[in-house]
DNA sequence: TCACTTCTGTACCGAGCGGTATAGTCGAGG
DNA sequence: CCTCGACTATACCGCTCGGTACAGAAGTGA
């Protein structure tokens, strides 16, 4: 919205999106509760009053940073769902996730999980926000697979909701591995196993992979 | 070790294992950094000096609580690996994990993950300890599957290390789901999908499950 | 040039953190 | 029974937390 206001007073010396990216990286690496205001402001290159004037509170800053993370870092995973078949969509989703989780230029793993799976009661909202983000991704996955089911692109009797949860869980597990230092190759090998199994499950829609 | 010392002074009024269980639950629910000394001592029913006399520091308390957690709460998952076939071992492992993650009597999910995937730099040791615990479980899984490979109990060309990582990742993903409130049935449905896929992958060693 | 508005930087706030000194309490051995 | 030693409880330590008051700086419009 009003991002084009005619600037009544002194303009900011920092770009909002840029400092949000820096903040996201700190939350990503240290978790919400581990990320202190000092480390955040240091990484963002601004001081506390600027931070509070721009974002209001640590929690609001986190929400904004997480939203931006979702927009940017998960775009290719969402795009993967547009593959023509369910099999291709699942593989593209898992491959893109594995690449994201181990890509350079940002911390390993996934902010949605490292940000704070378990928090103290006063920060319980953070866990809920992260869980809602993951649930949205899983819902998108399920919607895609549900469409596949209607198109006859899924093995009979396979529940699209359970399949979406399976794929999402695998991806989340890869995030846990990545946070602990697993390499891209490690994760892709796991995806190889998963896709070989899914291919066996539904030979019709998979590329030829006979043993 | 010396649990049978002849009691030189005044005896403790609390049982060490019992208070470790309480401490584990707090860490489990709130994470290492979210768990304050106040909430820990309250849950354990002892005061700070007793805690420090018995365990030395918050970090040592965590290590002890985590060790005990490993002994008790993961016993059935380890036992699952003793199943006669690789297929049965994987299924038993995933089923036991899903049950553990959603069982009553303790917080949902898994301390190995909720305890602190990402911590501030000064608590980086905690993440490492948890990662080592998960790696040990994965190593046990891999050892079992490696044995299966030698016994011809694994499809040709299937890497036991990658398969172990796949199974472990799925289980960790289920833990993430459980932490966010997924039910036992939700997780078991995901296991159903996984086992159906693994069965298709290796029909020989799976129970008949034709659609 | 000058008011006006918004930003920046320093210095600070109360609260809670992890950890401890100290004094009192209580059970066992001589 | 009394001394000893390890326990418990209160009250406190320095420090860092998230958050803010205030004064000075700096662009804009008249």
Automatic annotation (TrEMBL), chains A, B:
<dbReference type="InterPro" id="IPR023772">
    <property type="entry name" value="DNA-bd_HTH_TetR-type_CS"/>
</dbReference>
<dbReference type="Pfam" id="PF00440">
    <property type="entry name" value="TetR_N"/>
</dbReference>
<keyword id="KW-0805">Transcription regulation</keyword>
<keyword id="KW-0238">DNA-binding</keyword>
<keyword id="KW-0804">Transcription</keyword>
<dbReference type="InterPro" id="IPR009057">
    <property type="entry name" value="Homeodomain-like_sf"/>
</dbReference>
<protein>
    <submittedName>
        <fullName>Transcriptional regulator, TetR family</fullName>
    </submittedName>
</protein>
<feature type="DNA-binding region" description="H-T-H motif">
    <location>
        <begin position="36"/>
        <end position="55"/>
    </location>
</feature>
<feature type="domain" description="HTH tetR-type">
    <location>
        <begin position="13"/>
        <end position="73"/>
    </location>
</feature>
<dbReference type="InterPro" id="IPR001647">
    <property type="entry name" value="HTH_TetR"/>
</dbReference>
<dbReference type="InterPro" id="IPR036271">
    <property type="entry name" value="Tet_transcr_reg_TetR-rel_C_sf"/>
</dbReference>
């Amino acid at each position: 919205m009003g991002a084009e206001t005619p600037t009544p007073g002194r303009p900011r010396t920092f770009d909002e999106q840029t400092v949000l990216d820096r903040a996201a990286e700190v939350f990503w690496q240290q978790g919400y509760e581990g990320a202190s205001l000092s480390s955040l402001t240091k990484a963002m290159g601004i001081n506390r009053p600027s931070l509070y004037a721009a974002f209001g509170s640590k929690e609001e800053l986190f929400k904004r940073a997480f939203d931006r993370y979702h927009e940017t870092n998960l775009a290719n995973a969402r795009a993967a769902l547009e593959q023509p078949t369910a099999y291709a969509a699942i593989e593209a989703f898992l491959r893109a996730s594995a690449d994201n989780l181990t890509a350079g230029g940002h911390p390993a793993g996934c902010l949605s999980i490292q940000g704070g799976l378990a928090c103290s009661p006063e920060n319980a909202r953070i866990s809920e926000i992260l869980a809602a983000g993951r649930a949205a991704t899983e819902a998108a996955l399920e919607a895609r697979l549900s469409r596949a089911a209607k198109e006859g692109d899924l093995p009979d009797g396979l529940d699209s909701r359970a399949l979406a949860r399976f794929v999402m869980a695998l991806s989340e597990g890869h995030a846990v591995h990545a946070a602990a230092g697993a390499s891209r190759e490690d994760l892709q090998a796991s995806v190889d196993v998963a896709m070989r199994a899914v291919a066996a499950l539904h030979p019709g829609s998979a590329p030829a992979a006979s043993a």
